[in-house]
Amino acid sequence: MLTGDGRLVERCLEGDDAAWETIVRSYGRRIYNLCYRYTGRSHEAEDLTQEIFVKIYQNLKSYRVESGNLVNWVLKVSRNLIIDHYRQTRRFQQSAGSEEMETMNLRDEKQPNPERIVEQSEASRFLRDGLRALSPELKEAVVLRDLEGMAYQEIADLLSVPEGTVKSRINRGRIELARLLAKRRSQTGMQV
Question: 0.85 exceeded by the pTM?
Fold first, then answer.
């Protein structure tokens, strides 16, 4: 008798809509966040998230409990589709200004002055531009660690590389990102 993840997948395969809904609710936000960080556009991230869930549903029968927990399997499927998407587009999309403003939480209880709002917007844009400039391997490691908050071993399992490789990629990515942001700051005179 299966328990936990195995039973949930088994229920999905038997046609239990509530079980599928549990999977979507459990992982939807995390997958969307990953997609958004790679595409930079909410509409594109939503489409990619839907594609990922279709792929997950189509491949649920290949999930094996003995291979690890469901979250790692779901993230591997997500990662593979994000990589496919990247290869198809061959570049990371630029964020539109209005979309950037939609996704940022600029509201402050003390009503920040307009100058501070502009600075926050610029800093966010600089960071996204810096992430786009990183190689896919470095970007992936930095996003998973620093933005998704995953542990080194989780990232290693997800990427199928040794933990030392993950740490090295994160370190190189952070150094390169800091260099890019410092260069941008010196060019614009803004605090990033």
Answer: no
